[in-house]
Amino acid sequence: MKMNKFFIGGAFILAAVVYLIASSTQASAEYFMTVDELKAEGAPAVGKSLRLSGAVIGDTIQYDAETLNLTFEVAHVSGDNNEIEAQGGLAEVLYQAVNDPSRQHVSVLYEGPKPDLLRGEAQAIMTGKLGEDGIFHADELLLKCPTRYEQAVPEQAANGN
Amino acid sequence: MLAEFGYGVLVVSFIVAIYSGVTAVYGAQKKSAALVESARRAMLLTFPLISLSAAVLIYLLINNHFEVAFVYEVTSRSMPTYLKVTAWWGGQAGSLVFWSWLLAVFTSAVTLRKWDRDIEFLPWVIVVSAITLTFFLGMTVFFENPFARFWLVNGNVEPGMFAPIANATLFTPQDGQGLNPLLRHPGMVIHPPMLYLGFVSFVIPYAFAMAALITGRTDDRWIRITRRWALWAWLFLSFGLVLGGRWAYDVLGWGGYWGWDPVEIAAFMPWLTGTAFLHSVMIQEKRGLLKHWNMILVILTYALVIFGTFLTRSGVLSSVHAFANSPIGPFFMGYVTLTLVVSVALVIWRWPILRSETEMKSMLSREALFLLNNLLFMSILVVCFWGVIFPLVSELFTGQKVTVGPPFYERATAPLFSALLFLMAVAPLSAWGHSTVQTLGRAIWKSVIAALVVVVTLFFTYTQNIGALIGFFLVALALFTTLREFWRGARARQKAQDENFFTAISRLMGRNRRRYGGYIIHISMALMAIGILGIEIFQVETQGLLLQGEQLNIAEYTIQYRELASWDSQSEGVNHTRAVLDVYENGIFLGQLNPRIDYYFDSQQNMTTPGQRSTLRDDLYVLLVDWQPVSSAGATFKVFVNPLVNWLWLGSLLFLIGIIFAAWPDRDPAEETARRNVIRSNQQTSAAD
Questions:
Q1: Do A113 and B359 touch (CB under 8 A)?
Q2: Interchain CB distance below 8 Å, B159 and A24
Q3: CA distance A132 to chain B (A)
Q4: For residue A51, what is the nearest residue in chain B, using CA coordinates?
Q5: Using CA of residue B306, residue B307, residue B310, residue B313, what is the dihedral sign?
Q6: What whole-number distance in Å separates Cα of residue B529 and Cα of residue A89?
Q7: I need a surface site. Which of A160, B126, B142, B324 has the fewest CB within 10 A?
Q8: Torsion B200-B201-B207-B209 (CA) sign
Q9: ipTM, 2 decimals?
């Protein structure tokens, strides 16, 4: 009898935590998408909370210091880590994505300070929504520049000497 | 030659670690003290061996041996020597050696202790440590070798430890890639080693727990031995987390300190189980309850420590931290799974003899409230774990990768953290064994009224935000009840011992260091909560392009752009750009701020340093975002006002003081024990530990 009240109390807490997790998951789920998937989905994707990843194309970076509007384009890169590994690592995949004209692109608009890591061939992971205008409105912008950290072979050599 | 030597020493340490583990098992089975002693000495030997290997690595780092791939990746000529040394843990291969080295330090320290009373634990503690050490050394020997070099093979450069073909020559790049400038911050230099110290020192309590299970000696001896270890581990882990937050606040320039990034969570999860563990071991010591639970907690903590080391270095989850993508991920997962399965099997095997000595009766007793505290910490852990693995789960079941961001964690953990604050206020007032609503009510009503007064005052003077008011109520309640505990204890002692108040309070705390250290930590948590409420709920921001002499208003502040200078520093390889701003509050000049952008030539990267003006009321936090070559043409600034955030940093500091107070070793153990025995026999108090 005595242990019963502890089980009831425990069950109550458990139910509360499950509810908390379930409702919070629903409220803040973000669909992870690649550029290709976003293009394929088209109009239904407008307005959904998304997390989009792509390779930053250096020439398209434009920054208006007055309004803090940052625009750039990203090219499709695979969302699968294994696939990226198989193609020679993130640095290589990003390099190819940026220099391959047949890849699909998406324009991105971000309002805020220009991140220090933003540059061509960086991987951008953006949280936000696709607008009616076909531009991805990012609220959050994470960047990875793999070349600088984990490039196994020095550049002097990669250029062929 | 040096690189070969360093690698050779690593290989030898790997073999010695294996020898140590195998001999210890064999010795324990044969009940041979000589074999166990041999295992112990082998364990001790790993420390000088790995130190030697690490010294070689550091020598290579300092002296620009860029033919070594790891040196090339993490250092460059322009880096000052101290950064080259700390580059040791700046990359994956080096940090694995660092991990192994710390583990060797700790296990050596532990094997040198006096073992007379618990000699049966010794072989098994060695075994667990040796297995862990072997795993990490094995990673460096076979997969992530920090001594691997570049070889010229038919005009191509290939990395490898030894010449891939007979006549290959070493290739030495002109300069290394250097450490990311964002990481050249003092906080970032000591943040990883602190986290690692915390991670690694949790291995020791785990090793003793396993030893207790294997030997069947499942009283609370293993807990008493490792209590201080766990506290120090907790200290380092906490310090590492705080430093990481401070670094993010100072360097990343988003005006925040914690982003619910998977890697942050990876370091936070062992902290959660560790915190739960520190609380629940007290129930086992005082009441002989929850023995299974403590085993499970220490096993979970160990698994999360390995998992955390893996997450921070594997790149399996998209994260700002995960710079590396490496082949060792599967091995880490395999190792975590294996140790988890074996440990849980041991618990199940010993389940019958881990039975509780008494029963929990009252829902409001101290032990029941401690149990609730544990449930809350576990719930936060589950929330975190769910958030981290949700993308993998959703992909598995729906084929679509869905992630959850910071709003998920904030929403799901806020009620849990609030409940913890409330418990922090109530639990210290309840009695072991039995408490009722009446007894608790009598102890707390004054504090409740005081907290209500605070909230009503805040309502009329500061904020009408309901969430904030609830938060401030809980903070005030926790603060008042905890302070009252100090007051009551000191008053009681003052009367009984006829001391003055200050003598009474210092002796009271000195004789119950764990308890009052814990209360200091509770107070610091409440202070940190003030800071978190402040920045989360009341942060305001603005931005704008300012011409020279123009002003920008935010909250009570006015900032005026005066000038900007940009210059190259050849010796550092950096271009500095620094703005000068005047800050006014309601027309009164307060001082100047100098937000900065430093451009590093070698890595072609900017580092933005905010100008900060910190007071207990708020932080004015100004970022230089962009500028025109002619300073009169204007510059763009982003400005945050972060109310109360310095309570977070202040609380963090007090937090560390509290842990050190609770964990500080006693002056002389023998003398201390004698003194305590005298106290115990003189007074019938549940005195110090």
A1: no
A2: no
A3: 22
A4: B403
A5: negative
A6: 42
A7: A160
A8: negative
A9: 0.75
